[in-house]
Amino acid sequence: MITSSAEVGTAAGVPFVVVPPENGPRPDAPVLVGWHLMDAPRSEAAFAAALPLAGLDAWRVYLGLPMMGARLPAGGMDELMGRGYEDAVLLMHGPVNADAADEFDAALEALRARFGFGAGPLGLFGGSAGAGVALEVATRRDDVAAVVALSPLLQLRPVVAILGALFGVDYRWSPESDAVAARMDYVARVTELGQMPVRLVVGSQDDASAFLGPARELAAGAAGPADVVVIQGMGHALAEEPGLEPAPQTAHAAEADAAAVAWFRQHLGV
């Protein structure tokens, strides 16, 4: 569950949960910012419960994805799923990734003004679609000290293929959706991460072609420290359904959490 010291609200229109450092608020503590999955946990509050990063003397910031949680379309999950059926790339995955990355700078500045942090190093993390956002933001900034990507969406094409098979949709690629897939191919864009340390955490039961394979390929091509941690028995999700509200941490999520904590300890000194 979320710690009692957590604060919730919105920053520059972005829903957040902020948990202060273990040893109390201080401006020079590292700042860890993450985005949730589209699968469970699919809200910032549920993600904070699933991946608390406990024990780190750092600010932990959980941001809500566009079109998810409090920002679901007017028709709720039914409308979001309808957009996915109509065009999963141009109406869902593409805009969620781009809009979340575009709104990050303003949200971070608003949070810095509100909580007084900002002097410490910046780490990014995320799950699935949220991991893609973390990597997109990392390619745009030169102050990211480390990234942890869990069940990461690293290449859009294989993910669209498995979702199409699951939901019976034969996705027709177009020049516009091809461009989105190229932008969201972080394996091909790995050089844009420079020397940034990246840890990829993947479940052994997740789809190998869409998640484990791309994770290993990205790690192999990275210029800086990079590795892949495989959680035995874990699928794609990091929480039980429905994944909207905070829930007890699962055993697999606890392992993923420990892997993230260890990486941030190693590379941010927290």
Relevant terms:
8 strands; eight-stranded mixed sheet; 9 helices; single chain; 17% strand; 41% helix; alpha/beta; 270 residues; globular
Structure description:
There is one protein chain. It contains nine helices and eight strands. The chain has 270 residues and is an alpha/beta fold. It has an eight-stranded mixed beta sheet with strand order 1-2-4-3-5-6-7-8, sandwiched between helices. It is globular. The protein starts with 6 loop residues before the first strand and ends with a helix. The mean pLDDT is 95.
SSE layout and pairings?
Blueprint lengths: L6 E5 L2 E6 L11 E5 L8 H7 L8 E5 L12 H12 L1 H14 L1 H12 L6 E6 L1 H12 L3 E7 L5 H12 L7 H9 L14 E6 L4 H14 L4 E6 L19 H18 L2
Parallel strand pairs: 3-4, 3-5, 5-6, 6-7, 7-8
Antiparallel strand pairs: 1-2, 2-4
Explain briefly what this protein structure is:
Helix 2 packs across helix 3 and helix 3 crosses helix 5 (129-140).
Percent helix: 40-55%
- Summed over residues and divided by their number, the pLDDT gives a mean of 95
* Beta-strand segment tally: 8
Q: DSSP helix count? A: 9
Query: SSE order, as H and E?
Result: EEEHEHHHEHEHHEHEH
Distance between the termini: 22 Å
Please summarize the sheet with the most strands.
8 strands, mixed
Assembly type: single chain
Would you identify the regions where 5 or more consecutive residues have pLDDT less than 50? none
Strand content: 15-25%
Gyration radius, in Å? 17 Å
What coarse outline follows from CA principal-axis ratios? globular
User: Strand order, biggest sheet?
Assistant: 1-2-4-3-5-6-7-8
Q: What is the SS-derived class? A: alpha/beta
